[in-house]
Amino acid sequence: MLTDEQKQFYIDNGYLILRECIPSPEAADLRAELFSIVNKPWAGSTRLGILYEKGAKGKDPTNPLGANFVMASPLLGDRWFKLTLDERLVNPIIDLLGPDINLHDQKIPIKPPGHVSTQRWHQDWAYEKHDRPELAALLLYLDDTAPGAGATKLAPRSHKHGPLPHDRPDTLSIEDSLIGDDWIQPEMHAGDALIIHTWLAHSIGDNTSDTTKAMVAHVYKTQQAVDIHGNTRAMAEMPVARGGRVVLKADW
Ligand SMILES: O=C(O)CCC(=O)C(=O)O
């Protein structure tokens, strides 16, 4: 359960860091399973998409094909679906958003060596509009990150501005000048999680290190929030918690 200080920190700053949300050996095990899947051609459902970065091929022996994204990741396998309902992830979301939670999206952003994203400062809201801003992303890091090594950039308190214009040419991103110097780039460790309000401006950190950085990203929302954007992701709207409790015990 989150403390009152943690809840207040999220309200004030629009993000919250959860150190050791899962133990680092478990994160390492998840990472190993992830790459055992993405290191060969995907033969499962076509609803799942794995993207590869051409220039990253052969740069990291653990990610030889240069995987850089998994869309609809619950379809990777049972373990990834179960993670959606994992109380270590969902209970903090219940504490921040309320007792009745649905899933909105689940994906795995991966940054191979040399990764520089075209998507810069953005609010997730620009990609997930609802009738109310009751959504939060939980990023579960499977690798250690640092500035220059895939660490996410955050603009604390920017959620208080509400939706910001995403006017940067060629990409749905916010102009750097709107963010200015008021940003941080916390180091995260494998197993740590970061919760981000849908209106918090954040940016994907470049990865100039020689190892791949992966994270699992779940977007949760309240049951009441109605999608007006048109989300077609696998398992969108799936009930995750009701009355403050996770709805399914996935014990198989
Ligand atoms: O990749 C990251 O560092 C952050 C992920 C992100 O920006 C997003 O999923 O919207």
Descriptive report:
There is one protein chain. By secondary structure, the protein is α+β, with helices and mostly antiparallel strands. It has helices at 4-13, 24-38, 78-84, 87-97, 176-179, and strands spanning 15-18, 49-52, 67-71, 101-111, 135-141, 153-154, 193-197, 202-203, 213-222, 239-242, 245-246. It is globular. The mean pLDDT is 96. 19% of the residues lie in helices and 22% in strands. A hairpin with a 2-residue loop joins strand 10 and strand 11. The chain has a single domain, classed as Jelly Rolls (Sandwich), CATH 2.60.120. Residues 109, 124, 137, 139, 152, 202, 204-205, 217 line the site of 2-oxoglutaric acid (AKG). 2-oxoglutaric acid is lined by residues 109, 124, 137, 139, 152, 202, 204-205, 217.
How far apart the termini lie comes to 25 Å
Q: Which small-molecule species are bound to the chains here?
A: 2-oxoglutaric acid
CATH topology term: Jelly Rolls
What percentage of amino acids are in beta strands? 15-25%
Assign the CATH class. Answer: Mainly Beta
Which radius of gyration do the C-alpha atoms yield? 17 Å
Give the number of DSSP strands.
11
**Oligomeric nature of the chains:** single chain
- Low-confidence region ranges: none
Shape: globular
Tell me the CATH superfamily: q2cbj1_9rhob like domain
- Number of discrete helical segments: 5
SSE string, helix = H, strand = E? Answer: HEHEEHHEEEHEEEEE
> Which structural category fits the helices and strands?
alpha+beta
Mean pLDDT, rounded to whole units? 96
Share in helix: 10-25%
